[in-house]
Every structure is written in C-alpha cells, then in structure tokens.
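Bump. Still looking for Rho guanine nucleotide exchange factor 9 structure tokens.
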Amino acid sequence: MSPYTPLSPFPPYFPFSPTFPSLQYPIFPLLSSLSHLTSLLSSPLSALTQLISGGSIVSAEAVWDHVTMADRELAFKAGDVIKVLDASNKDWWWGQIDDEEGWFPASFVRLWVNQEENTAVETVEGASPSPSEVQNGHADASPSSSDCLCQPAQDRDQMRANIINEIMSTERHYIKHLKDICEGYFRQCKKRRDMFNDDQLRVIFGNIEDIYRFQMGFVRDLEKQYNTEEPHLSEIGPCFLEHQDGFWIYSEYCNNHVDACMELSRLMKDGRYQQFFEACRLVQQMIDIAIDGFLLTPVQKICKYPLQLAELLKYTVQEHSDYRYVAAALAVMRNVTQQINERKRRLENIEKIAQWQASVLDWEGDDILDRSSELVYTGEMSWIYQPYGRSQTRVFFLFDHQMVLCKKDLIRRDILYYKGRINMDRYNVVDAADGRDDDFNVSVKNAFKLSNKDSDEIHIFLAKKLEEKLRWLRGFHEERKMVQEDEKIGFEISEYQKRQAAMTVRRMTKQKGHRSVPPGYPPPMDPMNPGQYLVGDSMEQSEFEFPEPERCKSPFWQSFSRLTPFRK
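Sorry for the wait, here they are.
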C-alpha cells in the first residue's frame, strides 16, 4: 500500500457526498505512514488477527458516524473508541462499545497509533485506555502523567517517535493534497471562463491558496525541528505557537465550505462539469476521490491537530524540553477549533437575522447583515436622548457593531416598528450611579449611558431591575470582545451568503403568506450566572387572542430573542 493512499476510502454505500463535519472530530479518512499500521493493513489482516487472538486489546477510533442499517450492527459516532474483537473479515469487523457488540465497517475507523506490534497493546502497559479512561465509548484526550510514567522509557520514547513520525508524514501528504487542489483544480477552473465566473470560484475554493502558502511555511519550520535520527527528541511545539495566528485563516475556509458543497452539488447536475473535474483529477494524477473529498481535507486537517497534539502530550514526559510547548500548542489549537465552531454557528443563524429584519415594519437604511452577524442581547428599557430629554420605552436589539431600536405597536404588541439604530463602534458605555444625573437633570436608577467618542451626544438607558442593567453591561462587553475577535481573524459574511439568506427569507415568506416564525431557540444565558437560562421581565411569553387560526403563541421578535445564548 502506498503511504499516500488513505487507509479508509469513502464507505461504498455512503449515500451522499460528505458535507461540513462536526469540527470536534474529522470525518474524512485519516492518513498514516506508521510502518506497523501499514503492515497490518496491507497484509491479509493476519497480524491484526494474531494480536486479537493472542489476547491483546486492540482499539480503534471512529472517524465516521455509523448509523446502523441492519440487525447486529454496532452504532457509534465519530470519536468513539471501539474495542476490536474480530478482524478476520477485511470489510466488516466485530467490535464492542461498553456492553454492546456488533459488526461495523472497517473503513469507518482507524487503529490507534499507540498500538505497537510487539509491545504496547496490552492494557497493563498503558497503550489502550483503561476503563476509567473510556466512558460510554469516548476516550479522554487529556494527557495522563501516570500513564506516561508507568511505561518503560524505551517504550515511551517509541510511542512519541511514532506520533511525531505520523504528524510529519500527514503534513507532507497534506501539502500534496493542497497542491493538487490549487494546481489540479483551481488553476484549471480559472482558465475556463465559459464555465466558471469569479463568484463561483470564490465560493467553491474559498481561500485555499492562502492556506497552501501558510502550510508550506509551517511544514518548512516543522522539518527544521524534526530529528530524523531520534524523532522522540524533536521539538515541534514551538512551531505551532509561532504560527498560531496563521491557523485562523481556516475559519474563513470552514465557514465557506457548506456553500462550496452546495455550489458543487448544483454544478454536478450538469454532465459537463462532472467530466471536467474528472479530467482535472486524471491530468494531475490524483487519487480516486471526487473534488468535494479533496475540498474537505482542510476542514479535516484543522480538526485533527488537537487530537494529534493531545496524543503527543500523553507520551511526552514533563522533563522533556518540548512538554510545555506541546501543552500550550494543544490549548491554542483547541481554541482555534472551538472558535471555528462558533463562527460556523453564527453563519447558520444569519437566515434567522434576515428573517427578523423582514418582520420589522418601516425598516430604513442598510440591512443588518451588512455589518452584523450575531444577536448579543435584547430587552425593553426606558431611553432618554439628550436633545429631547423625555423618556421613551423601546425594545433594543444589540448586535455586533450596532444596536437597533424598535417600538411596539400600541394595539398589536407583537408587531415592531423600526425607530433607528446606534453605531456601537462610535460609542463608549458608561455606568451611571443611582440618583440625580447632571447631564439630563433627572433622577435615575439602574441606568447606564452611551457616550459618543467624537461629540457631546449622550444616550441614557434605564433598566427595570439592577440584574437587567448588569446583563446589559455584560452584553456590551461581549459585543466589543466579539468585534475584536472578528477583526483578528478576518471574519465576515460573504455577499453570496447574504444573498442566500435573503432568498431563503423571500421564499419562506412567499410560501407562508405572512411573517414567518422561526423554531424556538434556548433563551439567552444569564451572563451573571453562566449556565442558567433567563427570560427577562420585559420579555415574558404571552398568549394572544386574535382570530387568525395559525397565529403563533409568542411574537416573532420574542422567538428571535432566543436565537443566541450568551457566551460565558
């Protein structure tokens, strides 16, 4: 078997092309160049069967979700750890998770890299997770110093060397994948202006060329740190830390990947595009995987880093010069994948934001999505604007970059009218003490102000309760934090995504014939008590007694207020 060939191809009965995976675990088949794994899988599985029959514990990690399609099949999710009990059949293995046993496709899993042919498959030697490490089929990826210390130094060094070798091998193969995408597909597509316009190329390939350039620099630095004679002495942790800011470019690619799959699916209905992409693959001498499989590899790669680093840290003693760097790199890469997940969630919510805007009457000015992508907090407060000096009750919707002011209809309290917006980039939030306010010459309680950075303009807001005021102050803090993080990684909604959201809203409105109501969402999390959900006094659910037969029990804007939970 060539080391470039994936250990597990797409499952033969998988009914559709892979779309955006969960970012916690990769679903694309994982690559490995470990000699012992290659020999196990290139032989007629006799070596693997020998290990199992000899009483060794052989574990495999699921890289695909497996939904059972027949009796006696073993269901699992990506990331589950399966004890392999019988591998005599090359396509279907018999395995166990907790107390359940059954058949599962061998192409859905990969053997753990810390299973050595001659040594460390026995539980007592620490190669496989102990019962305390595996609960409900899930392995704890956090390092255990006791696991590392109880192993002989020679075995431990060999484990670390194997993981280092796998990281280096997969990085080299990944570079070839990126080169094939850029030169084999992207470059050829740009030549065919009769088939692809600039918008289509941007949607399908995203920033793949930027990723290619970044990865080449990253791999060059990895090669410098790689000790070919004694791989276990390699110090690769600093490379991840040095390039940590560069990994954020994956956020844009991952956020765009769903649109890329949709566009490819649309094009593939035309036989010309099927023939074109297949011709590109053959000319570039790429392996037999469709273009959507190649375009998935960057998504899979950024997900794989935390798994690899967690396993590397597990077999790195604290005295090793690389230990603290690997630990820091693991924290960094986990944060990257977590933030990519968060950005993906926000993009999935933009249709709801466009839908909310369509429900607000008398809208003026730019669309919300032109500047914002997240509802941070919402509620009803009294508001005084300095030139007028009189209090008005408004419903406020705080998004990133802006806060929208709406007024309830006097009779139909579920209807909102647009009354303006405040550009949050131009204002500072100032706490106001209870008592007489000098700027407005009024008595205030539970108040705060928005002060214009460039003028004397001031707005004062009065919440009903102190708890509500504190939630708003926390909301403004979260909004600024979000804006800074977005600027750091270059997060923005593409014009294509905005058009898709607008088209979806128009289609839904046309089909239903009235303002549509999104499904219920969890209410915002209480920023003062993380983990506890809240519905403010001004946002309580209420039933309406109007005669429309399909009328929703709660107004659309109330449902919309549940869209995004407060982050901790």
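Residues 1-44, 114-147, 513-554 have pLDDT under 50 and may be disordered.

Edit: fixed formatting.
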